[in-house]
Specification:
Radius of gyration: 20 Å
Strand content: under 5%
Helix content: 55-70%
Shape: globular
Number of domains: 2
Number of helices: 10
Structural class: mainly alpha
Number of strands: 4
Length: 279
């Protein structure tokens, strides 16, 4: 048993983030997981269109993914800049979207730092624009996607785990892990796996089970917003806060504050949509 726990504890050291490496070219599992996430979401949405009476065409879903991916990437990047590192990027605006560091000459550093909440806002904006262009009902469209999104999101968090990033707070629980990117080499919660389970698998199972019993358009979307916000809020207690921000009031991470806004927004969606459906 002791050997098994030791192997588990050092598992991150045996996971290479690279699926393929040829010279300076690297294909990372993280990128692959995002492709899998979009693929899983697409297949589940296509299944719903074929089996549950939605009137949309598969081609519309395919077109929408172009809009959603663009909104996700742009929103996630700008969200990180605004929510997590605004003071730095205020002094280094060129680094917001350019993969170069200009402090000491010009050096390629890539683009790092994405925010889920910023990405969610970006996708919502893209969805509003897409629905207006297509003449589709926003609430009905988001309800089509809401039950599928969490399962796709699961793979994104698995990608974080393989990368060894976004690890949890120091702990003494027997299933804690040591991550190579942690300069302190402490035993930490594998919070990426907690998120994959809570915000991913469990939320998916809930929404998928009730998807046919939605009482009004916007119900599944509102429930997703509340469900994700709640699960993420709880799991943030096990996740290491961003070093440049720490905890607000000594209690809450930035992610938790944003999740509280999510929960409130989800509740507002349900409150506003329900009376409209009853008229």
């Amino acid at each position: 048993m002791a050997n098994l726990l030791e192997s588990w504890r050092y598992l991150p050291y045996h996971l290479s983030p690279n699926l393929l490496e040829i010279g300076s070219f690297q294909l990372r599992y993280y990128s692959l997981m995002y492709l899998v996430a979009f693929g899983v979401t697409y297949l589940l949405v296509r299944y719903r269109i074929g089996r549950e009476g939605y009137s949309y065409r598969v081609e519309q879903v395919q077109d929408y993914f172009v809009w959603a991916i663009f909104g996700l990437i742009l929103g996630a990047r700008l969200g990180y800049v605004l929510f997590y590192n605004f003071s730095y990027y205020l002094g280094h605006p060129l680094e917001i979207l350019l993969p170069f560091e200009f402090t000491n000459g010009i050096r390629f550093v890539g683009i790092s730092g994405m925010s889920y909440h910023g990405g969610a806002i970006g996708v919502i904006v893209a969805t509003v624009l897409f629905c207006r262009r297509q003449g589709a009902d926003f609430w009905n469209w988001t309800d089509l996607f809401a039950p599928a999104i969490p399962l796709g999101y699961t793979f994104g968090r698995i990608g974080n785990f393989i990368n060894g990033e976004l690890y949890g707070r120091a702990t003494d629980v027997p299933w804690g892990m040591i991550f190579p990117l942690d300069a302190d080499h402490l035993v930490r919660h594998p919070s990426q796996l907690y998120e994959a389970l809570g915000e991913g698998v469990l939320l998916f199972l809930l929404l998928w089970a009730i998807r046919r019993r939605s009482p009004f358009d916007g119900f599944l979307f509102g429930l997703y917003v509340i469900g994700y916000g709640t699960a993420r809020f709880v799991i943030e207690y096990f996740r290491e806060p961003d070093a440049q921000l720490g905890l607000f009031l000594g209690m809450f991470s930035m992610g938790q504050l944003l999740c509280l806004l999510m929960i409130a927004a989800g509740g507002l969606i349900l409150a506003v949509r329900k009376p409209q459906a009853a008229i």
